[in-house]
Each structure stands twice: as C-alpha cells, then as structure tokens.
Amino acid sequence: MDGSSxxxxxGKIIKSEEANVPILTHSLQYGxxxxxxxxxxxxxxxxxxxxxxxxxxxxxxxxxxxxIGLGISQAEFKNAIIETVKxxxxxxxYIRPFAFYNDQSIGLGVSGKKVSVAVMAIPFGHYxxxxxxxxxxxxxxxxxxxxxxxxPQAKASGNYINSILASMEAKRSGADEAILxxxxxxxxxxxxxxxxxxxxxxxxxPSASSDILIGITRDSVIRIAADxxxxxxxxxxxxxxxxxxxxxxxxxxxxxxxxxISIDSEMLGDGEVGKxxxxxxxxxxxxxxxxxxxYAHWLTYL
Length: 302
Known about the structure:
CATH topology of the largest domain: D-amino Acid Aminotransferase, Chain A, domain 2
Distance between the termini: 17 Å
Low-confidence stretches: none
Order of helices and strands: EEHEEEHHEEEHEEEEHEHEEEHE
Strand content: 25-35%
Number of domains: 2
Helix content: 25-40%
Structural class: alpha+beta
C-alpha cells in the first residue's frame, strides 16, 4: 500500500483524488443519484461485508424505480465492492456505492445522459458519538416523503433533503436526532434510520404503509428477534406511543443499533438503555463480527 485511498469508478480502480466530476454534473445539481450504505466488519476470520447481496439488490431496485440504466450486472457490481474494499486494505469500513448522471449540462432531462457508477470505502466508527449511552430525539415538524411526492423505497440522493431538514431542526433544539411522521400522522422513521419501540417485552416497528425505507438492518433485527422468541409487530404506530413505550432504538447500517433514551424531552422508562435494546444490540454485533454461525450466510468474507 502506498498510503493512497482508492475508488472504483466505471469499471476501474483509481486513486480517490483522480475521481473527479464536472461542477455541472446533473446529480450534483438536482440530487438525481442513487446510493447504498454498507459496512464491513473485522471478524476473527478477517474482514467481512454484512448482507452484501441484500444491499446490492436494493441498489438495483433503487435504479429500477428511478429508471437509471446502470450498465453493469449485479454480479459485476458485487465484485466491484469487494475489490474496492480489498484495494484499500480495510478489514472494517463503511462502503458507499453511488450511481449518478455524469454530464455537463443545465436542465432536468436525463435522456441520453451518461450514468457513472462508483464505489468508495472509508474507515468509519459510530455514527452517533454517544451511541452507547443512548441518544435524545425530537419529533420533527417535517413529515416523511411519500410515494405521491418521491418514492421512499428508493435510496436516492434527493430524497435525503427531507432528512437533512428534519435532522437540522432536531439538533437546533438540542436533540441528537429527529423522528419523522408519515403524511397521515403515524410514526415513520429517523432521517437515516428505522425505528423500533419496545412495549411489554415486544418489539413494534412502523410498517411499509408508514412511508419508511425497508431497511436491511431493520430486517436483520426482525429476524434476530423472531429467533430469540421476541414478538415483533409491524404496524402503524401512533405518535403518543413514543411517549408510553418502555424502550426505543434506531436501526441502520451507519447507526447499527442505537438506543433512544428520550423523545421530546420525555425520558423513556428509567432513562437508561433497556434490556431488550441491549440484547438486540449485543446479538447484532456478535453476528456482524462472525460469532454466530447460524447467521454466517449474512457475511461475505474478503
């Protein structure tokens, strides 16, 4: 290794500083790109990417929703991700695949524009600095986008302006993160995280009808809970349930399992990280680190 970082761009591994795009790039101006967030963890058997196939599948689904022709197969894309992580010599990292319209023009039209696909891999720790002790959230005045506005099932760059506004508002009020409601007033999700609450030793999480992104970490938690005999309900969640639940936590590739200890300045339970949240977090970490053979199929070793 020469100390440089490397990016996979349109079929080639190049140095990061060489991966440049024009200032008038369509996706920079209009948010017309799609992306994924993936993690690799250092296990006892080396680096392993968590649920890579599922992330690749969702990336291609996002492209399909936005009618973006990627010009690459899922198998080629998967290999590009593995190659990028290896080339950067990282056992543990955050991986950011990105597809965008790479052009130099003004105007909303995308017909005939070049689509570029890139993969980046960077060292990455906790998304929230105080993750271990739990974070404080605020219900946002901004509502989550819905399918009449933008497709929430796609991880598209422009979708996240909604998230950025909500997160900024929450932080200005002294909270660590926001919680968005759906357009019909039910609980949706965080700016970049899915949400679970715990009530009477059962997990409850907003269903797809609440305009959420169907998260891969969310799905992992649902499966882990089922294997542990913990009941899980996927349904519409009323806002007031946030204040009467016993525990709450966020899930996401970046956030992993992040406990929530207060919402709208109201402490949840005794204000400490709850036992079910702790259990789910511990199991998730053990699985990602290759310590649970039952879930070995979720890991792609480098």
